[in-house]
Amino acid sequence: MDYQLTDSIAQICIDDGKANALNHEFIDAMNASLDKAEQEAKAVVIVGRDGMFSAGFDLKALAKGGQQAADLLDKGMALVTRMYGFPMPVISACEGHAIGMGAFILMASDNRIGADAEYTVNLPETAIGMPFTPVLMSLIKDRISSAYQTIAVIQSKKFTPAQAVEAGFLDQIVEKDQLLTSAMSLAQELIKLPAAYYKTNKLDLRSEKLQIMQDSLK
Question: What superfamily does domain 2-216 belong to in CATH?
Fold first, then answer.
């Protein structure tokens, strides 16, 4: 995971050369990057790589079971809860598959920009036999359009970028070569807003969902 600070904007690039799966190392590195951003940045831009934003939890790690798997689930829930209540703008730039927790990282971000490319966004939990936690269900109810919740959540439909905008996973799509520029430009606009009121109004707007999410964390 790469961290760069440019003009008060923390750019966090997630690229392990594979699926960008959430394991203990991924979550620890993301939290360390967010810690750094909280100290020195005014906004955060999260970027995946060409073809892959994140494939979600490391299913091999979860399949091992035991305390490590339980801890991984807990850490994942805490991460997206932290992102959802992060005290500054969080923008995700998606140019590849966002699956499971990858899609929830999008939902936990304030703004989600996708590249106009060939990839899908989906929640495979039903298809792979997993329930949604209170944290995840809170994000779904806040970000996913009610008209799409059945097919997205219960039926594990895969969405193209354009469909993902309609469903609520993404806010807009741009040409692939303009993705990072668009995300950084939006961040520059957002940091012009009074930071204290951005934080206050964000937390007030999301207070009910955040309370449910935080109460469910161990």
Answer: 2-enoyl-CoA Hydratase; Chain A, domain 1 (3.90.226.10)
